[in-house]
Amino acid sequence: MVLYKRKPVQLVPVPDDIGPDDEVWTIKETGEVFKTYEEYLVRQEFYKQKKFICVITGHSALNFFDALRSEQANAEEIEQAFPEALKGPVLRKVQFKTTSRIDTLVDQVYDDFKTDYYPHEAVIVNMMTGDRLHGVIRDKAIFSGKTLPDGTAAPPRARYFVSLDERPGEEAVCDETQISRDRKVFTKSVIRSFLKGTTSREAWTGAPWIVKPDVARRYNISTTVPEALRHETKLAERKKLALQKRQSMGEQVSPHPTPDSMSPTGPVRLPDLKPAPKSHKSKAQQAQQAHNQANGTKHKSPNGFPGIEPGGFVHMPLPGSQMHMALSLRTNQEMHHIYTQQPQIQAPPPPPPPPKGPIDDLQLQPQGRVRPKLKYFCNDPPVDVEPDLKHPFGAKILMKSVGPLLETWDTLNVYVEVLQLDSFTFDDFVEALHIASEELPVELFTEVHCAVLKILVSAEDQGGKPQIELPELEVEDDEDEEEEESAEPTPEPEPKPAGRATRRSLAKAEAEKLAAAQAEAERKALEAENAPKHRAEELLSDYNWIEQLAKRQLQDGGWQMIMVGLLHQLSKKERRREKCEELLQQLVPTEIEQPTQETVRERYSSLDVNYRIQALQIICQLCSETKAFREYMETCSTAMTDYRKQKIELQRNRKQAIEELKALNEERKILLPDNLPPSPPLESAKTNGDVSMTDLEDVTPMPEEVPDSGDESVIGGRALRKGKLRAAERKRKAELEQERKEKAEAAAKVPKQSKQFLKLLKDIEAKEKVISDYEKQIGVIDDDLRENDCNRTRVLGKDRFFNRYYWFERNGMPFAGLPESSTAHAKYANGCIWVQGPDELEREGYIDMPPEWQDEYKAKFDMTVPERKKLEEGPTSVFNAYQWGFYSEPEEIDALLGWLNDKGLKEGKLRKELIANRENIAKHMEARKAYIGPVGGSNTKGATKEDDDKSQKEGTPAPAPVEKPNKRMSTRGRTTAAPTPEVSAPKYRCLSWHNTDAMDQLGHLHSEQPAPVRARKPTKRKSESAAIVAEAAESTGSRKKKARHSRG
Questions:
Q1: Phi then psi dihedrals of residue 128, to 5 deg
Q2: Distance from C-alpha of 613 to C-alpha of 406, rounded to nearest angstrom
Q3: Are 557 and 567 in contact (CB under 8 A)?
Q4: To 10 degrees, what angle do helices 890-899 and 905-931 make?
Q5: What is the C-alpha separation between 379 and 679, in angstroms, rounded?
Q6: CA–CA separation, 213 vs 737, rounded Å?
Q7: Would the CA dihedral through 934, 937, 941, 946 be positive or negative?
Q8: Phi/psi of residue 254, each to 5°?
Q9: Stretch 264-281: mean pLDDT, rounded?
Q10: In terms of CATH architecture, what is 116-185?
């Protein structure tokens, strides 16, 4: 059932008037028949559009035939994967369900059947001895629930009789707690695919899920839709409710009797008349009404008789009477007089209303604001920029490598738990890619390669099989070569006797000569094209990279050789051929006559950083195909479902607690007047600003008032002043004591609050604490959801010119990396907002539009879209999806928020996301600035102030300045002490990264062989470490939980 615009494709019925001799055209895949070739072509063009959806996988942008093949292939796979014993019960459970979302339906089915098993189903039995045995359920006995003596109801229970495969002839009787299914058999993704392939639902609200007819016949499921669930019944119910609502709104009893109610023929219902709102009157009518009210005149009709006042009542004569007929005739005459004397004046049409809600961003008027300048992480930016807008490490990186670099770093940090790596910052990763060499080995560079390679092939004790699909290598047959060698050479034709030369024969000979020369040139060109451009075949002739990787032979150039073998085999696939061949030409060039493992190691150690990024991108993309990555994503998806359920429950509890708090606050308002303290007494005159004369005496004299120290009367004056100061101090203490006593007496007079009011205050405080706890738990679950969302990188949003904005810490990883990482002190992961240009379709359809569309846009906004892009983005821009820029300062984010227009559809969403995450973004940008500053920079000799300033611009580790000795320092009479050896700091930040996770879980690095096991008693420290590792392995995502708790 292929979908088109989310609805099943309706096939064209076979025409009835086809004769046996008529010429027809058919489509084999659908069985459709057409009488004319034009109809056939129109249908084929319709099917070739890439607008169809495979209903099972959900893949879109397919043509009809690709979607049909995808459905058929996946239907067979699901048919084999889903347990046969569960198909009937699951379909009966789903039949006629009215749940609208399939995700909710899948959750319901999963919860209902998670602990419910059926006969003939393969299960795993957990025996009392601890053994796990495979078996098949032979029978199932269900016992109904009962009410216990204490009044509680015991739920129904079941007993299963399981035949054990490992113990023929034996059966185990157990309940649902003792048996389980294989985790791969009954998962939500399998249930979803199974339901999509076996059920359907119409596109109207409240439509039930219906099992497909052929499947329903196979499992004896009724397909007769109940009357209450049919579309006609639902539609009739809605119409009936709408009619009742209109009648209830229209039937209002008037307080005054109407003329029809007093008619002898009975009441006649008249239409409800309501006074028109004031806004419906014209300005002339409103002015006339105000003039009449000011003059005390009543409203008159055009014939001079008093008219009906607006909103007033009129006494009408009975129907059928003479007065009624005369009044009707007079009314008709008056209306004719009005229409003949006063022609209607048509008012001009009102202006179109302003658009409500957000609209397309490019349809908003330009505001003249310029976006903050982008920075570039490469040496070939798309526009000429100032040097301070280039990252110093970008001097060696090309723009085409920035996207793969970000992709690789993001993949490695999202899946660090699967790869058993410590998380690392983006700047350390870039630095490691730059400086790793034979003279300076970098653990981060080596461990990343080895960890990814070990995921691609299982260990030797686990089978040593590739975990990805690899193309087959071409194996030349030795027998064919021998046959070719032993084949006899073709005898040369004998020269013909030369005849008489004519002009025709000479022209023919010249043409043959030219043709032979051209064929020889083509042959040589073909040979040059097919000639080997590298020596990978020769290097790998007696080397099996899969076996070596299974044995974990990664040391001394081992992983570099494995990389060559992997790239060589991947080059046989057309999609990866160009990139792999380019890398092999760098690692095993034809200039090396005899390539060895040592030469490969040397070539890789001097490989350009762009090629290193390219190689890492290839092997990281392969990881997504492995079983370990798929299981991790499935586990995270299941965990997210559980977290969502917990969040819904917490939100429900919080809402209830808020309602209870609201009721308590209402009660507090009622009790508050009786428990208010009395108004404070008026302060004394002294506190109002009166100053005693004693205080004036305490003022210290100004410097010009101090007497001359040579005067003899100074001693007596000082003694008198000290006595006055002591008296003022005693008086001040007495006043403070009096004030304290007055406050104590006032407090004693305050009436004590009632016990009921105090208890209420405690209840309010407790309820507020409960709500706060709920909010904290919801915040923790939000972090869990964000960190387990690892299937794809989430984009923050797009701006008006379709540039995409990424904050890579937004999902799949903790904001600052794992807290137990060796570089956790950096307190950030990436610390930048990255801007990607528009993709090709968006650029062609919305920016570089056809000339006629550009002219239409220019007529409206006085500029074309490219001109507006240049004006509003300023001197820095990105023009396609292969170009990237970034922001690294909190001030730039604030300026970006000021540039975005929240009235636009795209920018409104982007601005909302940036505001919601602004605090975390700015926090980690500041942490990045502190980490990559001069502190902890490289200690390169001979650094200058200019180098230091330049490094501070954008995060390059600044060389530490070398202190020069003071040549004029005197050392005479001193004993020169021996210099104390100092522990030198690492020259580069990335050298401080160590893979502690691999050491904790494996006991060695990925690039090392495991150490031999020693039979000795473990120390207390190692026992504790092993216990921590075992505890962390119990649940997936435990390291991310530690990150969350460290933030709290």
A1: -65, -25
A2: 10
A3: no
A4: 170
A5: 74
A6: 96
A7: negative
A8: -80, 140
A9: 46
A10: Roll (2.30)
Tell me the backbone φ, ψ of residue 179, rounded to 5 degrees.
-125, 160
Q: How many residues does the chain have?
A: 1048
In this model, does residue 962 exceed pLDDT 70? no
Amino acid found at 160 = Y
Instruction: At 200, give phi and psi (nearest 5°).
Output: -145, 165
pLDDT at 401: 94
**Amino acid (one-letter) located at 312:** G
Strands 209-211 and 157-164: unpaired
Residue bearing tokens 């105090």: 758
Q: What is the DSSP pairing of strand 7-8 with strand 3-4? A: antiparallel
Neighbours of 623 (CB within 10 A): 21
Q: In the chain, what are the domain boundaries?
A: 1-81, 84-114+201-229, 116-185, 370-396+790-931, 416-470+531-625, 639-668+759-787
Categorize the per-residue pLDDT at 710 as very low, low, confident or very high, splitting at 50, 70 and 90: very low
Q: Dihedrals φ, ψ of 381, to 5°?
A: -65, 160
Q: 3-class SS at 378?
A: coil
The answer to whether residues 760 and 671 touch, using CB atoms and an 8 Å cutoff, is: yes
List the one residue out of 1043, 1032, 1042 whose CA is nearest residue 420.
Answer: 1032
Burial class (CB in 10 A: 0-12, 13-18, 19+), 989: buried
Facing residues of 142 across strands?
Answer: 158
Max Cα-Cα span within the chain? 156
5-31 in b/e form (b: 16+ CB < 10 A) is eeeebeeeeeeeeeeeeeeebebeebe
Distance CA 832, CA 814 (A): 15
Q: What is the pLDDT of residues 32-64, one digit of tens each?
A: 999 888 889 999 999 999 989 887 777 888 899
Three-state SS at 833 = strand
Q: 876: which 2 tokens? A: 């820095």
* Structure-token match 């055209």, residue found: 25
- pLDDT digits over 656-679, tens only? 999 999 999 998 888 877 666 655
Residue 965: both structure tokens together = 């000795």
Question: For the whole model, what pTM was predicted?
Answer: 0.59
Place of tokens 């601005």: 911
H or E element at residue 234: helix 231-250
At 675, the amino acid letter reads N
DSSP string, 17-83: ---TT---EEETTTTEEESSHHHHHHHHHHHHSS-EE-TTT---SB-HHHHHHHHHHHHHHHHHHS-
DSSP state at residue 564: H
| 542 vs 25: CA distance, rounded Å | 57
Nearest to 426 by CA among 414, 440, 409: 409
**Residue 1039: helix, strand or coil by DSSP?**
helix
